[in-house]
Structure formats: C-alpha cells, structure tokens
Amino acid sequence: xxxxxxxxxxxxxxxxxxxxxxxxxxxxxxxxxxxxxxxxxxxxxxxxxxxxxxxxxxxxxxxxxxxxxxxxxxxxxxxxxxxxxxxxxx
Length: 90
Hints:
Blueprint: H1 13-18, H2 28-35, H3 52-63, H4 82-88
C-alpha cells in the first residue's frame, strides 16, 4: 500500500502539482466557467478552509500569460479539452 503525499494547509496550485501531492481535481470548473454565458460579475463563495485560494491560484496558473509551463496541467481533466486549452491557457 502506498502512502498519499498530502500537504496540509497548502494553498498554491503550483506547489501541490510540482511536489506530486494529492490533489482533488477541480479544473473542470474552468471549462464550465469559460463555456457558459459570461455574467457581469463572478462571485465564488465557499465555506472556510474549502479551497478558495487553491482554486484561484489554479486559475492564475491557467491564465498567466508569462508562465509557459503546461506541465502543471498534465494528466488532469482540463487537458482533455484541447480546444479550450489552446484558446485560453497562457
């Protein structure tokens, strides 16, 4: 039985992915966010300690035009939608 690499209190998508830590894939949020009719304002609410900062750092890594590192997103759900990734990633 292998042990899971869990970072307690980690709020950086890059740190979690680079250290091969256990991560609940929420990248399909990007697909829903980008393909639905855009609202004027997007409000993302969650209870305390529910991953708001981690979600926002994932969004930052996905949209950052200065970061060209696609390795962070290898093997997770959003990369299956190649058209969306080529249009929006970096």
